[in-house]
Every structure is written in structure tokens, then in C-alpha cells.
Write a sequence for this structure.
């Protein structure tokens, strides 16, 4: 599980709005992508510098600037100055590990999301912070590394006469949020498959490795919960509030996103219950197995108590013990011990004690 407090000691003593990157550098050089479009035309480029973006900003067009890589503080600061973004927003963009949230400013909205993906090789959930800034005629997206879930959105913009080309920037922000949340269902589907395999292992081979996998699964579900639950509040506030940068016609689409979030949360809560149930099942299995072992050991100890008692009596070195001078004394005592042993076994078996 990621440590959300990593490197936060670096900002101790710094003033509010001080720009410093807190997190891991996940790419050598930042990558920029800009798409400028309206219903009639679209322009797409991968500029080498932020100065090239200015030519794509036109009043009648929607501009989407995406930046992959947050370690270049100067680049993020320059982008904020170009679009008039408050320093406190830039500070939150650079501080990865933020809780999903939404902040309203005079001319734009700031939204923080957790983008999730599933690493098939390591069989674990991978998360990344995605920051969106929605303003009048533009959307800025900041990611920690290249590779995202926005490919379908780009394709819809570049494709031609689609709904997104006829809408404003608020619809683009909706489409990006919808893409992030829809990918949650892909992650949940992979987790469901993993849980099914764990459930089969639990009843076929309840080893310590299985128990450790259940523990790792519970940690992943905690991560998913931290990423998903705040979205309910974020999108709910969008559908209920009057933000200047969001048109009333777009609210119906955000309501649909809200429904998707509730559905994802319901699935997640079901998975959490299933993981807790598997954990309890494993613990019950271990306890029952320990009880069975203790039962067998108790039966063995109980059987040998009278045998030890008999052996102890005849192991005393008193001079006058009648059986010591008997010719068949040894075989008689040994036979008595065997009969006693067999009788106790039969009695315990009939009582179903083992």
C-alpha cells in the first residue's frame, strides 16, 4: 500500500502556495499534449515546450492541455501562469497523494481524482493522482506519468462530428471523469477474479501464503475505498451546486457519473464483506485444525495415563511384591496393559472423540 505521507516533511516551514514536488519522479522528461477543437475543426499536437501551446488558444475553441510528469515544478508553474491558476492549486497538483476533492475558485474548478489500473504481472492495483482544472474554454489535466484511460476521449474528439465536439469545456471535464470512473469497473472485475481464485484456494489449500494474499487483498480494497468514496461527495456537489463553469445542460451527464460511482461503491462494499468473510473462514479453519490436533493429543495422553500408572507401580523396587516372583507376571501385566489400551480406544471411538 502506498504511503500517502511520504516526503511531506519537505514542506514543513514553507509558506502556503510554495511549489515543491512531493512524490516519485515517474518519467524522465515531462510530455505535453494539446487538443484544440470545436464542432468544425480540431488540432492535435505534442508540443516540445509550453510556449507552443499559446497558438492553440482561441476564444471559439476548447483547449485541452495534458501534462505527464509532475517533477518539473517550473513547467507546472508556467502552465498555471498561462491559464491564471491559483498557486494553492498548483501546490496541490505537485503534492501527489491528495485525497479526491473539488475546490471552486472564481474562474475555474479544481478536481483531484485517483486513477486506478491493474498490474497483471504483479497482480495488484496501481494508483495515480490526476488533477483537472476546468475553466472557461479550457481543461488542464496533470498526471504523474504517461499512459492513462483517456484514449477513448481523445479518439472521440479527433474522430469527427461527435457530441463532445459540439459541447463546451465542462462536457470535456465530464468525459475525463467518466473515463476514470469507468476504469474502476475494470479494476473491480480483475479483483473479483482474484477473489474467486482465493476462495478456491481457501478450501483446497489453506496455507499461510493464502492468508497473506487475503491480507493483501484487504489492503487493496482499503486503497479502492479511499479512492472511490470521496468521489460520491465530489460529483454530488457538482450536480447540486451552481458552478459558473458548468452549464445546466451538462449536469445530467454528471448525474450519470454519480450513479456509476454509487454502483462501484456497492460492489466495493460487497468485496470488502467477502474479504472479511474469507479472513474469518481461514481463522476458523486454523482454530478447528488446532482443536483436532489437541483432541488427538489429549486422547493419546489419556490412554497412556493408566498405562503409565501400572508401569509405575511395577517399576517400584520394593522387596515384597508378589507378582515379581510369579513366572508369568511380566506377560500378565503386559497383556493387561494391551487390553486396557484397546478398551479405551474402543470407548473413545464409540463416543466419537476422535
Amino acid at each position: 500500500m502506498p504511503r500517502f505521507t511520504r516526503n511531506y516533511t519537505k514542506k514543513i516551514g514553507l509558506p502556503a502556495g510554495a511549489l515543491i514536488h512531493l512524490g516519485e519522479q515517474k518519467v524522465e522528461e515531462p510530455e505535453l499534449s494539446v487538443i484544440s477543437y470545436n464542432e468544425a475543426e480540431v488540432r492535435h499536437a505534442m508540443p516540445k515546450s509550453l510556449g507552443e501551446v499559446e497558438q492553440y488558444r482561441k476564444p471559439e475553441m476548447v483547449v485541452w492541455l495534458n501534462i505527464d510528469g509532475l517533477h518539473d515544478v517550473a513547467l507546472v508553474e508556467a502552465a498555471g501562469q498561462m491559464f491564471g491558476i491559483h498557486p494553492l492549486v498548483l501546490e496541490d497538483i505537485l503534492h501527489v497523494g491528495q485525497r479526491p476533492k473539488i475546490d471552486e475558485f472564481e474562474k475555474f474548478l479544481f478536481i483531484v481524482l485517483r486513477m486506478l489500473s491493474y498490474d497483471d504481472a504483479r497482480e495488484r492495483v496501481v494508483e495515480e493522482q490526476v488533477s483537472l482544472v476546468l475553466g472557461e474554454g479550457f481543461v488542464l489535466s496533470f498526471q504523474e506519468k504517461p499512459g492513462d484511460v483517456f484514449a477513448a476521449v481523445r479518439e472521440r474528439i479527433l474522430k469527427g462530428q461527435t457530441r463532445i465536439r459540439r459541447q463546451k469545456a465542462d462536457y470535456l471535464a465530464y468525459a475525463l471523469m467518466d473515463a476514470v470512473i469507468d476504469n474502476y469497473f475494470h479494476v473491480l472485475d480483475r479483483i473479483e477474479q482474484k477473489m474467486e481464485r482465493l476462495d478456491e484456494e481457501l478450501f483446497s489449500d489453506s496455507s499461510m501464503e493464502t492468508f497473506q494474499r487475503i491480507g493483501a487483498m484487504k489492503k487493496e480494497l482499503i486503497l479502492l475505498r479511499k479512492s472511490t468514496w470521496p468521489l460520491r461527495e465530489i460529483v454530488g456537489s457538482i450536480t447540486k451546486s451552481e458552478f459558473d463553469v458548468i452549464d445546466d445542460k451538462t449536469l445530467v451527464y454528471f448525474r450519470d457519473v454519480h450513479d456509476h460511482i454509487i454502483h462501484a461503491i456497492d460492489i466495493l462494499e460487497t468485496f470488502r464483506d467477502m474479504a472479511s468473510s474469507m479472513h474469518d473462514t481461514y481463522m476458523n479453519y486454523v482454530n478447528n485444525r488446532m482443536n483436532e490436533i489437541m483432541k488427538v493429543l489429549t486422547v493419546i495422553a489419556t490412554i497412556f495415563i493408566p498405562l503409565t500408572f501400572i508401569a509405575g507401580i511395577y517399576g517400584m523396587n520394593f522387596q515384597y511384591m508378589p507378582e515379581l516372583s510369579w513366572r508369568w507376571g511380566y506377560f500378565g501385566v503386559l497383556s493387561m496393559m494391551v487390553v486396557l489400551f484397546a478398551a479405551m480406544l474402543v470407548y473413545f471411538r464409540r463416543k466419537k472423540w476422535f
User: Anything to note?
Assistant: The helical segments are 73-83, 87-94, 151-159, 163-166, 169-204, 208-240, 251-314, 329-350. The chain has a mean pLDDT of 87.
